[in-house]
Amino acid sequence: MEPVVIAGGGIAGMAMALTCHEIGVPCRVLESVRTMAPLGVGINLQPNAVRELDDLGLTDQLPAIGLEATEWALVGRNGNDIWSEPRGLLAGYNWPQWAVHRGELQMLLYRAVLDCLGPDAVLTGHQVVGYENTSEGIRVNVARRDGSTTKIDGSLLIGADGLHSATRRQLHPNEGPPIWGGAVLWRGTALGQPIRSSSAFTLVGNLEQRFVHYPISAADAETGLQVQNLIAELTFDPSEGWSDSDWSRQANLDDFLPEFESWNFDWLDIPAMMRKAGTIYEYPMVDRDPAATWVDGRMGLIGDAAHVMYPVGSNGASQAIVDARVMGAKLIEHGVGPDALHAFEDQLLKPMNALVLRNRGAGPVSILGLVEERCGGVFGDINDVIPHDEIQTFMAKYKVAAGFAIDELNAAPQTIPTGSRVA
Ligand SMILES: Cc1cc2nc3c(=O)[nH]c(=O)nc-3n(C[C@H](O)[C@H](O)[C@H](O)COP(=O)(O)OP(=O)(O)OC[C@H]3O[C@@H](n4cnc5c(N)ncnc54)[C@H](O)[C@@H]3O)c2cc1C
After folding, report:
1. CA-to-CA distance for 14 and 419, rounded, in angstroms?
2. Residue spans per domain, the chain
3. Tens digit of pLDDT for each residue in 368-391?
4. Which of 16, 28, 36, 161 to mutate to test the pocket of ligand 1 (most atoms within 8 A of CB)?
5. Smallest CA separation from ligand 1 atom 23, residue
6. Which atom of ligand 1 is found nearest the CA of 304?
7. Tell me, what's the pLDDT at 243?
8. pLDDT, tens digit, 9 for 90 and up, residues 187-217
9. Is the CB of 205 under 6 A from ligand 1?
10. Whole-angstrom Cα distance, residue 272 to residue 253?
């Protein structure tokens, strides 16, 4: 069998390679960067993704790259709590939620791919520039970093090449660049004392201006300090056209910190924290309109290439892992061919397209809009503004939409039953 060719060695691509190995399908990853490096800052792995990493035998490595997340909290601009809920095992899931360093997760998956599939499984410096469906399979056109080009034949091409996907561009040539809705994130990490329950995702502010804080390491036994992920977010007029959506673009504190100078509560001094961050990365929050299809003959999209969304629900990386596992299940069910790609699309295109739009509408964070609407952000006890049950119902609906509703997930059969292989 020709290998399944995977475009992109990010979270989705590496999870796809590990899944192919598990189910006995040869594969090869083509990654455009010359050298793999742990890029990015914090991300969350929801229990639906942790379950899949558990099935891949990787969860014992998570403590080295992150911290179990046990709380999710929304706080008003005045520093008062709007909502707090338990997460992971504490919430009743059978699997924890993890807050981890994105780049370290990618490297963990990369090392696992090399261990399982050997050193030739990932070709770095190989940028996929296009593909041709042939009578027997698919031919992938590749530009190497050294300036040469090559063609690699495969049984399928999985487009896991992220936000600026070349495979998606060939499938939807008129789509244009990602769409910027007006928000810009400044992201970094800093060492800090634990706040709240010491492993909480804490979001403070309103829809136009907010700050996110969550730790991605346990507290050091000697210093008591944790590595904390920090995000400051401001909203601008979208017509300003801030479209340079590169996750690794560096920025300065002066670009945003003056807007946050007064955001100092007794339990959280935001300006002081941001000043401690080493490198600051700027990222205009972009997404794409839902795609009509993810499949073109023997090419199928997964991860951000299929459904890049605003990172407001902490589910981009989780869904990338789940996608790889669902694709694996479809390969087992339908064989290594276009039918598997269509079955994947039949299961996920509709709900993921709906989630893209839900996150564009601020996802779970849109509760902050309700607070503004009902009291202009001025409140003492939030129950006087929004009843507890109203928020509870809202949050439960989001978890259903994002595929991590507690009871459904706990009751769901394994995506890939242990020992299953492609016939
Ligand atoms: C450098 C970087 C830093 C990031 N930092 C953060 C962060 O701090 N917080 C956050 O929430 N999300 C971050 N993300 C996005 C996050 O990883 C994704 O939203 C999520 O994990 C979905 O994973 P994915 O594999 O679909 O996409 P990605 O993780 O973006 O992976 C795509 C991979 O494909 C490679 N690639 C791109 N084009 C081609 C091509 N034509 N041929 C071959 N390879 C190609 C890329 O180099 C990358 O390795 C980052 C992404 C990148 C690439």
Report:
1. 20
2. 4-44+102-177+290-363
3. 888 888 998 889 899 999 999 999
4. 161
5. 11
6. 26
7. 62
8. 999 999 999 989 999 999 998 999 999 999 9
9. no
10. 11
The pTM (predicted TM-score) of the whole model is 0.95
pLDDT for res 342: 98
Dihedral sign, Cα of residue 249, residue 251, residue 256, residue 261 = positive
The residue ranges of the chain whose pLDDT is under 70 are 243, 362
Distance separating the N- and C-terminal Cα atoms of the chain:
12
pLDDT score for 358: 87
Residue 8 Cβ inside 6 Å of ligand 1? The answer reads yes
For residue 265, report the distance from its CA to the centre of ligand 1, in Å: 34
Ligand 1 pocket test: pick from 43, 129, 301, 312 the residue with the most ligand atoms within 8 Å of its Cβ.
Answer: 43
Distances (CA, A) of 191 to 224, 263, 275, 278: 10, 19, 11, 10
Interatomic CA distance for residues 103 and 270, integer angstroms: 24
> Does residue 302 contact residue 329 with C-beta atoms inside 8 Å?
no
Ligand 1, atom nearest to 43 Cα: 11
Task: Please give the Cα distance from 86 to 115 (Å, whole number).
Answer: 36
Distance 150 CA to ligand 1 centre (A): 23
CATH superfamily ID and name for 4-44+102-177+290-363: FAD/NAD(P)-binding domain (3.50.50.60)
Is 10's C-beta closer than 6 angstroms to any atom of ligand 1?
A: yes
Distances in whole angstroms, Cα of residue 391 to Cα of each of 37, 209, 269, 296, 346: 40, 21, 27, 41, 31
- Ligand 1 atom index nearest CA of 142: 42
Q: Where are the beta strands (DSSP E) in 206-279?
A: 209-215, 226-235, 250-251, 264-265, 268-269
